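Example record

The entry below shows one chain as it appears in the dataset: sequence first, then structure tokens.
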Amino acid sequence: MKQDVFQAIADPTGRAILVLIAAQALTPNAWADEFDITCQAVSKHIKILNDCELLEQEKK
């Protein structure tokens, strides 16, 4: 299901993750430490941003 891009970027944490991902690639665990939230919460934000096609995930 495609998410609404405006709802995705309305969330301050999602917006901050998007901005910081543009600067450096980190794991969800590292993002959780950066934002002092759970890894599951980071994964949720990343999934929403990915569903909106604002991110493209790449496994290395």
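Notes for this example: The CA atoms of residues 13 and 19 lie 10 Å apart. The helical segments are 5-10, 12-23, 28-35, 39-51.
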